[in-house]
Every structure is written in structure tokens, then in C-alpha cells.
Amino acid sequence: MMGLRHAARACPFCEVRAFLGRRPQLQQTRLYAQIQRDRAARFDEAAARRRSGGPSRRRPDASRPSRMVLSDTVARPARPAADGQPPKKKTREPFSYLNRTKATGILHKRLDVGQDQRQDTQSRQSSATERREGDRRFDRKRTVSSSDSFHALKMQKSLHEIPYRLRSAIKAKVEEVDSFEGLPLMESVQKAIKDALPDLEYRTPTPAQAVAIPALLGLQKQPRTRNPVKKTGPDSYLLAAETGSGKTLAYLLPVIDAIKREEAADKEEAERKAAEDATTKAADPTRRDDIFGVEEPDLNKAVDPARPRAIILVPSAELVAQVGAVAKSLSHECKFRAAPISAKNSATVIRNRLFNENGVDLVICTPPLLASIAESNPNILARVTHLIVDEADSLFDRSFKPSTTEILERATPSLKKLFLCSATIPKYLDKYLAEKFPDMQRLVTPNLHAIPRRVALGVVDVNKEPYRGNKMLACADTIWQIGKATADYDPAEGKEAIPTKRILVFVNERDDTDKVAEYLTKKGIDAMAFHRDTDPNRQAKALASFTGTEKIKEPKDSEAQKEAAKSNASGTSRQLLNTKVIVTTDLGSRGIDTVSVRHVILYDVPHTTIDFIHRLGRTGRMGRRGRGIVLVGPGDRADVVKEVREAMFKGEALI
Ligand SMILES: Nc1ncnc2c1ncn2[C@@H]1O[C@H](COP(=O)(O)OP(=O)(O)OP(=O)(O)O)[C@@H](O)[C@H]1O
Fold first, then answer.
1. Residue 110 burial by CB count (10 A; 0-12/13-18/19+): exposed, middle or buried?
2. Is 522 exposed, middle or buried (0-12, 13-18, 19+ CB in 10 A)?
3. I need a surface site. Which of 148, 479, 624, 654 has the fewest CB within 10 A?
4. Is 255 helix (H, G, I), strand (E, B) or coil?
5. Ligand 1 proximity of 394 Cβ (cutoff 6 Å)
6. Mind listing the pLDDT tens digit for each residue in 38-51?
7. CA distances to 340, 364, 374 from 354, in Å
8. 247 touches ligand 1 (CB under 6 Å)
């Protein structure tokens, strides 16, 4: 016995049990005898059951429910215990390590519970890391060609990257929303889509609308927040969708729906209150509301003039007019009051629109103007429930950020929904939003940061003959070639020739707009410079023919044109007919819906991929085809242009 005990002590496994004062060999013998006894008893029991004709133990009774039923609560979190407290986490007891089947270095652990828990966390973290790495590998595989070849673009690296795996998942979701009728918008809003927007060719929601409208209507589950208890403030959303994808309607429709619903709820509440007052008065006719004999003013009677329910912020007066026009056309059907105001309006117009005695529901404005109005009139933001920041990357950059954040802070107490939207998400914006709005729901379309393949990009090498580095000459010549080409067809309009061609020329510096426009005019081209100081009336007129808001009168040759044609025939001077050109900077590239533009000329190579996306985004809008032409002159980054062209050809996102 002593020898056995000695042997047991020598074995490292038994050392622990010996330490606890047990005798393994003796226990083993006792255990074996017990097993034998149990087995014999079970055998006797089964034989007795067979004799009495009862159900066999091996063949389960069909009348009794099986114990092997799949749980229907697998995906649900663990239920709290009966006392209402959350279930306690099992902690490993020191002795639970004794029966482990895997050698995990138990002797080296010295029964250290804390260390084991740390290891558990580590292993969980490492499996999550593996999963993330798998996702990254997938994306790397998808973008390996682009990331390998985009050396020049990598140096700019201004855009936030969206994984391709995520894009594919969104594509599947977008396909589920195939009509406006399927969305729970109010009847009047549905009617407005049909009647007030006759120009919508397809009448099906675009991908941007398919991801944004359900989310803003509250149909989508909010993602789980890290700290749900701490979440305060409005629900915030970021819509990132490519240019010309219908972002304006993506936020306007849910906002109008919310305005109408709030209005209906207010009306109901007022009626309920009136009925209540009437019953109290009927019950006690002697009761008087006017204490001291003076009738109290009914505060609800007066409609507070400038207290809109929704605000839309945009970066330019041109966009105020554009979004205002869409809102106005919807308001005829839905009956709400929209007030587009910008610095281009006179003070009287602003006052009349904003302080309308019937009230205002929706204000469309630039941040600096609204911030200055709010400073002298803080009540203007007291009832705002929906705040939309269109072109968010511009409105949160250095120039607009102070006024945008000021409006946001003032509106926050009453704000229910904050909606940001943009065609490009630069890294600085992504970082800022992650810090400021960690719970922001991000709505991204599958083609974000990609220029559609239906837009072709051509390159003109200005250094070569016949231009010899003369960019202005190259620009004029390119416009002449486009203007003279007759085989220009619009597939969206049943393959009809386009009578008047509209071309946008983008320059990097504002001073160049005038110089280039002047040169083009000298060369017989109908060109106009478009910048902040252009005469507003002339500007609006020129832009209207590019945005399709002006009914296009097709050329019944005017006297001037006939003259020009005559002089052209006699060879005295050359005049390019039926072609209109606007020379502009970034001002014309942000949000302006230039639906009738088929050609965009990039006179200068844009500084960033963001500018590429916005400038080329003025053509090929909403399924149309378009063409971009870059003039690469001395000192321009030809390598960047080459890579952008490559990405466009492959339909990949720019980085
Ligand atoms: N569902 C739809 N079907 C057809 N056309 C639509 C639809 N939604 C919007 N449009 C049209 O698409 C055009 C572009 O819309 P919008 O200006 O809202 O694009 P955007 O995404 O804001 O572009 P950008 O990023 O350049 O500002 C408009 O002329 C609009 O009338």
C-alpha cells in the first residue's frame, strides 16, 4: 500500500489528488464495483419491462415527446433569471481544471482563474480578428488590381474606402425596394410623386432612395449601439451615394411625410383639447377662464411665423434654388409651405418667405445665412425636428463648419432626425462623424466613389501638335469638334439627334473662368464664365438651360445665327452654332443637376479624386450617357489621369 501511494505521488497527474488526501487506486476499485452493480440493476429492470409488455428503453415511446427538440431561442440573448437579474457568468472553479481532456498546460497554470479568463477573452478576440482578416482578404482580392496599379491616386488618398463585401450586401437589399408604392409614405406624398414629378422617367426608387427612404421612415432596425444607455440626441444618418443618383428626393420625400404626419398629429391634439374644453364648460357653465375678468390670450391661436419643422442646408444659392424648385412642385400636391432663401434674394423676399403669416414648414438655405438669421432670431430653430445637411463634405469643411455646427447645436433640443448626405466621403469627414456621432447609421450605395461606366473619359495631350502646350487652343478645338459632330444621339430620348449641345468646362482657379470664356467667345463659341460674381440674372438664365428647368426652345435660327451662318459660308469669321458652353470652377460641380449636359471638359487636371467625381458627375446623370475630356498640359499629372481612366473603365471606386 505504501508502495502504491508512493507510485501515485510520483505521477504528476495524481500528485494533485494526493495533495487533496485521496487514494486513487482504492477509489478506482470502489468505482468499478459500483458500475457493475448499476449495470446489473439496469439489465434486471429491462427484462422485467419486456416481460410486462411495456415500452422498451431503447425504442422510445412515440407518444412521449422527444427530448431532442431544436431550440427556437438560439439567436436570442440569454433571459434574465427569475429574480430579474441578468444570468451570472460561470466562473471557473479551481478544481474544474482536473477533468480537462486537452492538455492546456494545466500544471503550469497553477490553477490561476484570472489568467484563464484572460486567455478566454484572447481566444475570442483572435477568432474575431481572423474573421475580419478573412473579410479583408476578400476585399483585397477584389481590389488587388486597383490598389496595385493606383500608385498616383494613393498619394492623394482622400476618400474613405468602402469594402466590396459590404457593397454586395447592399446591392441585395436595394433590390428588395422596387416601387414607391411599396413604401409607407402618406397618400398625399405618393400622389405628389406621381403627379408633381412627371419628369421621373422610371418611377422606381434609385439605389440611394431604396436605402435612405426606409431608414428615414424608421423601417430599418437601428444598429446595436455600444452603450445604449448613454445614447442621447437625435437619430442620425449619413447617406453616401454617387452623383446624380436622386439624393434630393431620397431625403425630401421622408421629410415631407414627417411634416404631414406631425401636422396631422397637431391637428388631432388641438381637436381633442377643444372637445375637452367644451365638455368642462358644459359641466360647469359658471366656470370662467378669464381670471380677474381679463380674457387670457390663446397662445395656440397665433401661428408662430418663422418656426419651420424642417431645415435643408446646402452650400450654394444655386442649390437653394434647385432643391427649392423640387420642394415647391411637391408642395402643390402635398400642401406644405417651403421657403427657399439665399443671399441672392433681396431682404424683402427673405422676410416675406420666412415670416409668412401662415407659417413655414420647410426652410432651404445656406448655413452662413441661416446662422446669421438665427443669431438675431433664435426662435427660428426652436421647432425643428428634421435637419438635412446636403453636400455634407462641403458643409463640414473649414469654410462652412462653424455656421453648420452652430445651427446644429441650436436645433439639437427639438431635433428628432439629423440626415447628412454626400456623393463623396473624405477621410476627414469620416473621422469627424465617427467621433461626433458614433451611433450614426451609415447608408451607402453599391457604386459609391465610382464614376459610372456609361461616362467615357478621353484625354487630349496638349503638349503635342497642333497645340504645342496651348491649352486654350486645345479647349476651343475640342469644343468645335464636339459641336460639329452630327452623330450625337441620346438613347434616353429614342435615338433623336440632340439639337443644342451643352458643354461644361471646369478650371481649377476662379480667375481662369473669365480668361477661358473670353478666348472661347473670340473663337466663335457661345461661352460664359460662371462664378460667384457673375450677374445673377444672366447666371440663372444660363444655368436653367443646362439643368433642364427652362423649356428648351430648339433652334429656329435667330437673325444673329443666320448672320453668323452667312459670314461662316463666306469664310469671314467662324461661329459655332447650337453649342452652349459654361466655364466654371467647383461652384458648378456641387449638386447642380445638369441633366442636359453630355460633355464635360476638364481644362485643368483636378487636384483630388473628390473633384474628379463631382466634376465628371455633371454628365451621365440618372442612367444617361456622357463624355469627359481631360486636357493634359505641361506640368499636369498624366499618371493620375491614367489611373482615373483605368478605374472608370473597370467600374471601380476611386481611392
Ligand atoms: N426615381 C427616380 N427616377 C428617375 N429619375 C429620378 C429619380 N429620382 C431622381 N431622379 C432625377 O435624377 C436627377 C438627379 O437627382 P439629384 O439632383 O437628386 O441627384 P444627386 O444624387 O443629388 O446628385 P449630386 O450628387 O450631383 O448632387 C434629377 O433630375 C431627378 O429628377
1. exposed
2. exposed
3. 148
4. helix
5. no
6. 888 888 888 887 77
7. 9, 10, 12
8. yes
* CA dist 362 → 215, 304, 318 (Å): 20, 14, 17
Number of neighbours of residue 207 by Cβ within 10 angstroms: 23
Scan for cell 458648378, then name that residue: 588
Q: Is 470 exposed, middle or buried (0-12, 13-18, 19+ CB in 10 A)?
A: middle
Mean pLDDT of the chain: 75
Is residue 359 within 8 Å of 301, Cβ to Cβ?
no
C-alpha cell at 439: 451611433
Do 356 and 255 share a domain, yes or no? yes
Domain range for 468 is 455-486+498-548+575-650
Q: β-pairing, 441-444 with 310-313?
A: unpaired
Looking at residue 96, its amino acid is: S
C-alpha cell at 287: 366656470
Distance CA 160, CA 316 (A): 24
179 C-beta closer than 6 A to ligand 1? no
What is each CA distance from 201 to 98, 198, 460, in whole angstroms? Answer: 73, 8, 34
Q: How many angstroms separate the alpha carbon of residue 422 from the centre of ligand 1?
A: 13
Helix H or strand E encompassing 117: helix 113-149
CA of 48 to the centre of ligand 1 (A): 82
Whole-number pLDDT of residue 182:
85
Those residues with Cβ within 8 angstroms of residue 491's Cβ, 6 or more apart along the chain or in another chain: 625
Position 113 confidence tier, pLDDT thresholds 50, 70, 90:
very low
Contact 473, 518 (CB under 8 A): no
What is the C-alpha separation between 644 and 652, in angstroms, rounded?
A: 9
Query: CA–CA separation, 561 vs 577, rounded Å?
Result: 7
| Residue 375 and residue 429 in one domain | yes
User: Which residue bears the cell 425504442?
Assistant: 59
Here the ipTM equals 0.97
Both 209 and 169 in a single domain? yes
Task: Give the C-alpha separation, 330 to 251, whole Å.
Answer: 13
Task: Give the pLDDT score at 109.
Answer: 42
Question: Quick one: average pLDDT of 414-439?
Answer: 88
Question: Looking at the predicted structure, is the pLDDT value of residue 436 above 70?
Answer: yes
For the Cβ of 547 lying below 6 angstroms from any atom of ligand 1, the answer is no
234: its cell numbers = 437625435
**What is the number of domains present in the chain?**
2
404 and 463 in a common domain: no
620 lines ligand 1 (CB under 6 A): no
Domain identity same for 204 and 250 = yes
Q: What CATH number corresponds to the domain at position 249? A: 3.40.50.300
Examine the pLDDT at 653 and tell me if it is beyond 50.
Answer: yes
The pLDDT of residue 506 is above 90: yes
Atom of ligand 1 nearest to the CA of 242: 25
Sign of the Cα pseudo-torsion (58, 63, 67, 68, in order): positive
Q: Which of 228, 335, 243 is nearest to 609 (CA)?
A: 243
Which among 648, 651, 621, 620 has a CA at the least distance from the CA of 247? 621
pLDDT-wise least confident of 173-182, 260-269, 638-647: 173-182
Check pocket membership of 205 for ligand 1, CB cut-off 6 A: yes
Phi-psi category of 578—alpha, beta or left, where left has phi over 0 and alpha has psi -120 to 50? left
**pLDDT at position 150, please?**
54
E strand residue ranges, 330-385: 338-340, 362-365
333 and 368 inside one domain = yes
Residue with cell 404631414: 260
CA separation for the pair 616, 232 (Å, rounded): 40
Strand partners, 159: 426
Three cell numbers, residue 448: 459609391
